[in-house]
Amino acid sequence: MAAEGLAVSAAGYTLVPETTQLRAGEREDFRFTIVGPDRKPVTSFAVVHEKPMHMIVIHRDLNGYQHLHPDMAPDGTWHVPLVLPRPGVWRIYTDFSVLDAAGTPTPLTLGVDLTVAGDYQPEPLAAPARTTELDGFTIAYEGTPQVDAVNPVMFRVSRAGAPVKDLEPYLGAYGHLVVLREGDLAYVHVHPEEQLAEEGGVRFWLGLPGPGRYRMFLDFQVAGVVRTAEFTVVVD
To answer: In what order do the strands lie in the sheet with 176-181?
Structure first.
């Protein structure tokens, strides 16, 4: 599997932020454009999972995950309210599909670092585990992610020992899975099978670009509330 999100430019398209310097804990209007091969901001994007632009934000120590959806002005400038709570270096990924003149989509993931001044203390990652607790829910996964092979990984959400069978679609799917590799922050974003599996399980088909320690982020929705379960996994 090819690593994504490592470059600010690919296939003739470039992510151009208005600034890469932000202030810790302050809500700021983050703005950027996607510049095309003609050196002009792109204004034609495909809607993928109900949005034309998905933006993932993470600290370089793989903490502080955010999944945001910027809005685009007619001139191709994207903007989104953004709060980076801690000093250090943050990575943003813009995940989108541009449309050419014939309407053919080209999916791309472009990334750039943002710097927040201040005293930086890295936060350690949680130890690898197949279950995590979140707001009264237990989230567990089955299956083993592997390098250069696509394998099923099943997530199950339970509460008080019983499976949660009323998971709701969020952005057109029963879950969204973002996986980031420690070190270079290689990016993987996959969507599950359209239908829930037995007992409400959410099955993804996942392949990883290389060995290392990864952080998996599962977005899921119950009763109109989106939550993110986080896992550390080591892949040989």
So the answer is: 187-190, 176-181, 212-222, 225-235
Domain boundary among 116, 143, 174: 116
Residue 42 is given by DSSP the state: -
Tokens, residue 188: 């993987």
Gap between the Cα atoms of 80 and 69, Å rounded: 7
Q: How many domains does the chain have?
A: 2
Evaluate whether 170 touches 176 at the Cβ level (below 8 Å).
yes
Pick the last residue of a domain from 90, 116, 142. 116
Q: Are residues 112 and 17 in the same domain?
A: yes
From 23, 33, 123, select the one nearest 83 (Cα to Cα). Answer: 23
Model pLDDT for residues 138-194, shown as the tens digit of each residue: 999 999 999 989 999 999 999 999 999 899 999 999 999 999 999 999 999 999 999
Q: Is the pTM of this model over 0.85?
A: yes
Host domain of residue 88: 9-116
Where residue 16 sits, what CATH number does that domain have?
A: 2.60.40.1930
**The pairing of beta strand 27-35 with beta strand 21-22:** unpaired
